[in-house]
């Protein structure tokens, strides 16, 4: 299955490279949901590899620090992932 998925993705990207006007919608939507999820994961992985080049603004840093401080002040109010899923599956 991986070979099949890889071949499809490779073919789609080669086609996209040849004709930039026909980018994502037509080609990506031809993939199965599982293949699209895998594509998104692969794209995300490639971003995380290069994420050292990313910087955040002082405003973003301040917001992250504010949220982290709120978390530390209210750790008794947090939910586990299992608890969150149960609330949404009711």
Provide a quick synopsis of the model.
With 90 residues, this protein is mainly alpha-helical.
Description of the structure:
This is Addiction module component. It comes from Sphaerospermopsis reniformis. Helices cover 70% and strands 0% of the residues. The protein has helices at residues 2-18, 24-28, 33-49, 58-73, 81-88. It is flat and about 55 Å long. It has two domains: 2-53, no CATH class; 58-88. It contains five helices and no strands. The model has no long low-confidence stretch (mean pLDDT 80). It is an all-alpha fold. The two termini are 35 Å apart.
Measured by DSSP, the beta-strand proportion falls in under 5%
Note the gap between the termini. 35 Å
Share in helix: over 70%
What's the domain count?
Answer: 2
What's the SSE pattern? HHHHH
Please identify the structural class as seen in this structure: mainly alpha
How does the overall form come out from the CA principal axes?
flat
Organism: Sphaerospermopsis reniformis
Protein name: Addiction module component
InterPro entries: CHP02574_addiction_mod (IPR013406)
Write out key terms for the chains shown.
90 residues, mainly alpha, 5 helices, single chain
Topology summary:
Elements: H1 2-18, H2 24-28, H3 33-49, H4 58-73, H5 81-88
């Amino acid at each position: 299955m991986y070979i099949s998925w890889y071949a499809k993705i490779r073919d789609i990207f080669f086609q996209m490279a040849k004709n930039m006007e026909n980018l994502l919608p037509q080609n990506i939507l031809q993939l199965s949901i599982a293949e699209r999820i895998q594509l998104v994961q692969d794209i995300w992985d490639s971003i995380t590899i290069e994420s050292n080049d990313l910087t955040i603004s002082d405003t973003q840093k301040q917001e992250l620090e504010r949220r982290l401080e709120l978390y530390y002040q209210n750790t008794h109010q947090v939910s586990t992932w299992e608890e969150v899923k149960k609330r949404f599956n009711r």
